[in-house]
Amino acid sequence: LQLNHRGRYHCKAWVNNGVSWGWEESAPVTVTVHEVPSSGVSLSEQPRRGQVALGGCLVLSCRAARGTGLLSFSWHGEGSGALLGTGPHSELHHGGDNDSGQYRCQVSDGDSVAESDPLNVTVL
Questions:
Q1: Where is this region: Disordered (predicted)?
Q2: What is the pTM assigned to this prediction?
């Protein structure tokens, strides 16, 4: 079911009423379709436990357990309002000392925003 399926529907049938054949039409019904807000945002990381060697690469993935419509993803670091990236994946290349900290992912459906728990990243 998509948002564009909302509207008024009825059915028609070619029936015999016992005397003659003819078209009969049902009473119309209204179908309403609601978007499901995004929720259940979770992170996964590779390598596991959010630990990356100095100069190494860490791949973060974000997923929403529920949500309909066009979902957008954004990545944020500890204590920073700065946008670190968009999309369901974020890659930390050439990890440095300044990259240690907490990372979060936000998922928006345009009306609501859901956020993951923080992931602690440690550059070793």
A1: 84-124
A2: 0.64
Q: Which residues contact 23 (CB under 8 A, 6 or more apart)?
A: 12, 13, 14, 15
Q: Where are the beta strands (DSSP E) in the chain?
A: 7-9, 12-16, 21-25, 29-31, 39-46, 51-52, 58-66, 72-77, 83-86, 89-92, 101-108, 113-115, 119-123
Q: pLDDT tens-digit profile of 75-90?
A: 988 866 678 889 899 8
Which residues does 81 contact at the CB level (< 8 Å), separation at least 6? none
Q: Please choose, from the candidates 94, 60, 55, the residue with its C-alpha nearest in 3D space to the C-alpha of residue 77.
A: 60
What structural domains and CATH numbers belong to the chain?
Answer: 1-33 (no CATH), 38-123 (2.60.40.10)
